[in-house]
Amino acid sequence: MSKLLIVEDEAIVGLQLEETLESMGFEVVGRAMSGKEAVSMARKFKPDLILMDIVMPGGMNGIQAAKKIQAKSNIPIIFITAHADEKWLDQAKEVNPLGYILKPFHDQQVKAMVQIALKRIELEEKLKKSEEALRTERDRLEEIVQERTEELKIKSMNLEDTNAALKTILKKREEDKNELEEKVLMNIKRMVLPYVEKLNNTKLTDTQKTYVEIIEMSLKEIMSPLAHTLSTKYVNLTPKEVQIANLIKQGKSTKEIAEIFDLSKRTIDAHRNHIRRKLGLKKRGGNLRTHLLTLR
Questions:
Q1: Are 5 and 38 in contact (CB under 8 A)?
Q2: 52 phi and psi angles, rounded to 5 deg
Q3: Spatial separation of the C-alpha atoms in residues 9 and 273, rounded to whole Å
Q4: Cβ atoms of residues 52 and 81 within 8 Å
Q5: Domain topology for 3-105
Q6: In this structure, is the dihedral angle defined by the CA atoms of residues 189, 224, 179 and 274, taken in order, positive or negative?
Q7: Between vectors from CA 119 to CA 115 and to CA 124, what angle results, nearest 5°?
């Protein structure tokens, strides 16, 4: 049941209004006769709706009382007045009333005005709750979106780290593969082929020569797939020259290489000259590192 507060300085009119409202099923929680009393009762009873007379004695009219009440709460107002002139109506608009009841009033007019006001209050309250629910849901969705964005950001960073690690692994694998190929080629060239050549220069039976030819052919077949990663001229380098050549390809300077092997710069320069000669770089203007990089 809706609670109403009546503010009317004429006792008879106020009592008549109270009886009319109660007969319609509304609860009248109080009946004030001045603006000051209206402010006090509104604070005390917290009614759902106030029916407020505009013109009242005591230095505070209904409009002033309504402003004081609405400064502390959001209680809606219906003004009661016998004055329909624009001066009062313009002042009353500042309070944003839900309607006006003109004296002398009829019961049906009062009932219709109160019912309309209470229905409007109900709809506004529902609208307010719907807006709050919508705002809460929007905030919740924004939080979810933010959380998902952070999760995707972390996953993206993890994926980038994984890709970087995978690239490093693949690069190392390729380097290990190339190194293994180099070692196989050099070992065959230095540790196997010389003995095959010596066998060819000795007196062998026809069967032995056949075996040697098979061995030599097999070695060439083993070396053939690896030839795309290492020039045959590179195989002619000594182990130390191979190490120095690899450092040169990495962009190391003569001074840096000398420090790595604990050798003098003059010794490293001598190795560089040997490497150049074995690779056929007779002109001093040819860039050794550039040429070594082309051997892969």
A1: yes
A2: -120, 125
A3: 120
A4: no
A5: Rossmann fold (3.40.50)
A6: positive
A7: 150
Burial string for 3-33 (b: 16+ CB within 10 Å, else e) reads ebbbbbbeeebbebbbebbeeeebebbbbbb
HSE at residue 126, side-chain half, CA atoms within 13 A, is 6
Of the candidate CATH numbers 2.115.10.20, 1.10.10.10, 2.60.120.280, 3.50.50.60, the domain formed by 231-296 belongs to: 1.10.10.10
Asked if 38 and 75 touch (Cβ cutoff 8 Å), the reply is: no
What pTM did the predictor assign?
0.46
Alpha helices in 73-106 (DSSP H): 86-93
What 183-192 contacts at long range (C-beta under 8 Å, 24+ apart), as own/partner pairs, is 184/222, 184/223, 184/226, 185/223, 185/226, 185/227, 185/230, 185/235, 186/235, 186/239, 186/242, 188/219, 188/222, 188/223, 189/235, 189/236, 192/219
- Answer for the pair 61, 17: CB distance below 8 angstroms, yes or no: no
pLDDT bucket at 118, cuts 50 / 70 / 90: confident
Q: Report domain extents, the chain.
A: 3-105, 231-296
Partners of 42 in beta bridges: none
pLDDT at 35: 92
Contact 12, 18 (CB under 8 A): no
Average pLDDT of span 229-256: 76
Helix (H) or strand (E) holding 228: none
